[in-house]
Amino acid sequence: MRRLFLITSTVALLFGCAAPLQSPKQVDTPSALSSCPSAPRCVSSLSEDLDAFTSPFKVTSAEQWQTLQSLLRSLPRTQVIAQSPHYLHVEVRSKIMRYRDDVELLYTADKNRVDVRSASKIGYYDFGVNRERIETLRLRFLDATATP
Q1: Domains of the chain, with CATH numbers?
Q2: What is the pLDDT of residue 96?
Q3: Which of 143, 141, 147 is CA-nearest to residue 67?
Q4: I need a surface site. Which of 27, 91, 110, 118 has the fewest CB within 10 A?
């Protein structure tokens, strides 16, 4: 009986947590990103709270906007949830516990700016994971767009 339980549990753990891939939803470009909650599990370039603030990305062309989107999509365990020509929303899952975080990019071409928001869906504190994700994305973007 115990052996059957272990086998069933293992199969459920390996296959039960996998969700089928869905095609991204096409959405209208939002006018702004959601604000961060009061809990310290979010960073945003639109936050007035200095603890949650992170700088927006500076982009000077549509090609750089495409590069930034590609870099975000290439992060491990990332699934596109919704997109439009000036907006991208992905969900990133943590490696071990499979926690889900939302990451959003909002491109304003006339300001050469991409606002960003990264937030954990659950919990109170994220141990800096969202800030680290955005700063890693920023470094990768700067490397990819640097002129030789």
Answers
A1: 24-145 (3.30.310.80)
A2: 85
A3: 141
A4: 110
